[in-house]
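RECORD TYPE: inverse folding
INPUT: structure tokens
STRUCTURE:
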């Protein structure tokens, strides 16, 4: 299914950034909570593994990870 391909791609982008920066879901949750976004390690894990997160969540993650640009290849 085409939608599943997009979900996998979206998840891969966030996972790749987290891996390169050596940041675990727990740390991401702490950072998101720091800007007022209430997420838990578990909720983040579920969203990313399913690939079912909003663009708002994606931008919030990029903000707390200090990512200014994202390449989509």
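DESIGNED SEQUENCE:
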């Amino acid at each position: 299914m085409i939608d599943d391909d997009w979900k996998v791609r979206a998840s891969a982008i966030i996972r790749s950034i987290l891996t390169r920066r050596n940041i675990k879901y727990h740390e991401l949750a702490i950072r998101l909570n720091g800007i007022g976004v209430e997420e838990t390690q578990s909720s983040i894990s579920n969203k990313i593994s399913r690939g079912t997160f909003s663009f708002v969540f994606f931008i919030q993650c990029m903000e707390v990870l200090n990512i200014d640009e994202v390449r989509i290849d």
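NOTES: The chain has one domain: 2-64.
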